[in-house]
Amino acid sequence: MTKRRAGLACLWLLVVAVELGAIALMASYGAPDNLMMDLLVAAAAVTSGVIALDRRPGNRIGWLMVGMAVAWVVPPYSAWNITPLTVLVLFLNSLFFAFAAHLVLAYPSGRLETAYERVVVTLFYVGFGWHQLAVLEFADFDTLLVIGYVQRGFLTAAFVVALALRFARSSRIERRELSPMWIGAVMLGAIEVIGIWDDNSWQGVWRVLYEVRSLLLIALPCVFLYGLLTTPTVASAVGSLVLRLRDGVPPGELAPLLARTLDDPSLRVLFAVDGSDKWVSADGKPTTDLRTLEDRNHAVTLLERDGHPYAAMVHDRAVRETLVRGVASAAAIWLENERLHVELRAQLAEVQASRARIVAAGDRERRRVERDLHDGAQQRLLAVSMALRSARRQTDGQSEAALDAAEAELKLAITELRELARGIHPAVLSDMGLEAAVQSLTARATVPVHVDFEGVDRLARPIEATAYFAISECLANVAKHSGATHADVIARTTPSGLHVEVSDDGTGGARPTEGSGLNGLVDRIAACNGRLSVTSPIGAGTTVTIDLPLEVVP
After folding, report:
1. CA distance to 171, 292, 303, 305, per residue, from 295 (Å)
2. Which residues contact 21 (CB under 8 A, 6 or more apart)?
3. Closest CA to 491 of 450, 530, 521, 522
4. What are phi and psi of 449, to 5 degrees?
5. Which residue, 231, 198, 201, is CA-closest to 213?
6. CA 98 to chain CA mean position, Å
7. On the CB side of 369, how many CA atoms lie within 13 Å of its CA?
8. Where are the alpha helices (DSSP H) in 29-81?
9. What is the enclosing helix (H) or strand (E) of 430?
10. Strand order in the sheet with 298-305
11. Helix (H) or strand (E) holding 532
12. How many helices, marked H, and strands, marked E, lie in the chain?
């Protein structure tokens, strides 16, 4: 047995000895037959207090329970008529409800959290102590009785307000953990009400109520002891977590495991990437400044390694920081492993966003070049063509033939320029959408193409452009390499995105790794978080399947 436990055992024996002495005094003076109940009340309080001091040595709850036991059993010693002893005994006895109110408001930490609670408890000690001592000095008992009722009413109201304020500032989890506090407050109120009502004309009813009051007095410290012992400690939480970690934790499952260990469903784990300038959640999504995550119900606990934060836990304020840090220390390796996974996912998301931005920038540049060609070079060529026509009307036959040849060459140049501009970025795609652009594309195709679009409305510009150029590349491959006599373009929109199939009846054998065209398609589609697959058995044609989301990361 350790010295501390030996001291607690001596404390328990001392209080029990005081109890037994008080019971013996009451019996010697012919006290009523409630000695055993009074003994049980004091025994429950001192035993609960000593157990609480043993299991939670830094908590004052145990001392308050011991104080309740002493205050309950000392009144019989006033029969010795030793004035100093009598004064001390009556003063200690008056503090029973002060100890009880202090116990309720200080649960579970043993500390009074607000200035108002400290004022209320101080008033309980001063009020009950003063009133009991005043009984010894003043003979006007009726006046003191009225003062006592007024005092009890005032203190009861202040106590109820303190409980209401505690309830209002508590989170859902804390209210659940404070169940012993609410139960104890109700029990204390019932004890006080029964103690005030002492009517000899109702002896039978009073006897039953007195027994009920005694049972409540016995149960009161037991309720708080149970709540105190069932509150998780750092050691118990860490032990439970270590057992769960022994079998390993898949990526993304650590935060839910920590939430279950701390009994806090609102728990979030954030990780620092790129030093401590950027914080991301477990799914790799960036989050706001950590300071904005703290509010009345939530606190942020920073976890550091070598003086630098690597993770943060956003948790309910009811969960003690020491408990959070203890659990985090036990899971430090797993947290670091999770941080690496999160950092990798964040980098991947950034790469995908960067690729999407590059594709969008390329599409904007295509549209600019197409506009420049249409509004600049093409218009100038048209002006030259008109000038040639005007000149032809003013020349002889030989010169007219030369001008006709020049005009034919100019028309061919304009046609090629229009085709070039259309290939860079067709205006019909921007103006009328994907279906109209594909219809225009297939109208110039050298292989007959059947187009079947169903439910395809206007889409995001990067998606429309990617789908158009993918279909254009596939049809170009059909014309150049497949030997097909017919092709189909089928497009549908689904809840998950745009689904396109381009198929032909050619020779097959196409591979994404053969030729830069299909390789470029794969890269462009992947930049939009899409997928491309090719089915091309030799001799059975080729089917290219394209799946694109309806939106992309800008």
Report:
1. 11, 8, 19, 26
2. 77
3. 450
4. -125, 130
5. 198
6. 40
7. 15
8. 35-55, 61-73
9. helix 427-432
10. 278-280, 268-273, 308-316, 298-305
11. strand 531-535
12. 20, 9
Q: Is pTM, for the whole model, over 0.90?
A: no
Is 270 in contact with 316 (CB distance < 8 Å)?
A: no
| Identity of residue 505 | D
Angle at 480 between CA 474 and CA 485, to 5 degrees: 85
139: three-class secondary structure by DSSP: coil
d(CA 438, CA 327): 59
Task: Let me know: does 429 contact 422? Beta carbons within 8 Å.
Answer: no
Rounded Cα distance, 424 and 418, in Å: 10
User: What is the separation of C-alpha 12 from the centre of its chain, rounded to a whole number of angstroms?
Assistant: 46
Which residue reads 């003191």 in tokens?
144
Rounded distance between C-alpha atoms, residue 364 and residue 448, angstroms: 31
Helix (H, G, I), strand (E, B) or coil at 113: coil
Side chain identity at residue 188, one-letter code: L
Residue found by looking up tokens 């009225």 in the block: 146
- If DSSP states are collapsed to H, E and C, what string results for 214-280? HHHHHHHHHHHHHHHHHCCCHHHHHHHHHHHHCCCCCCCCHHHHHHHHHCCCCCEEEEEECCCCEEE
* Helix runs in 449-533, H state only: 461-477, 516-527
Give me the tens of pLDDT residue by residue for the chain, a chain 554 residues long: 688 888 888 988 988 888 888 877 777 766 555 667 778 888 888 999 899 888 888 788 889 999 988 888 887 777 777 767 777 777 787 788 889 889 888 887 788 888 999 999 999 888 877 766 665 555 556 666 677 777 778 888 898 899 888 888 776 666 666 777 778 778 777 766 666 655 555 555 656 776 777 778 888 888 888 877 776 655 555 666 666 667 777 777 777 887 777 777 788 888 887 655 677 777 666 776 677 777 777 888 888 777 777 788 888 776 766 677 777 777 777 777 777 777 777 667 667 666 666 666 666 666 666 665 655 555 666 666 666 666 666 666 556 666 666 666 666 566 656 555 555 556 677 778 888 888 888 887 888 999 999 888 888 888 888 888 888 888 888 888 888 889 999 999 888 889 999 999 888 877 765 554 666 677 778 777 888 888 888 888 889 999 998 876 55
Dihedral sign for Cα 188, 190, 196, 200, please.
Answer: negative
**173 within 8 A of 319, measured Cβ to Cβ:** yes
The closest alpha carbon to 103, from 150, 71, 149, 147, belongs to 71
Per-residue b or e along 449-488, where b marks 16 or more CB atoms closer than 10 Å to that residue's CB: bebebeebeebbebbbbbbbbbbbbbbebbbebbebeebe
Six token digits for residue 244: 């769960």
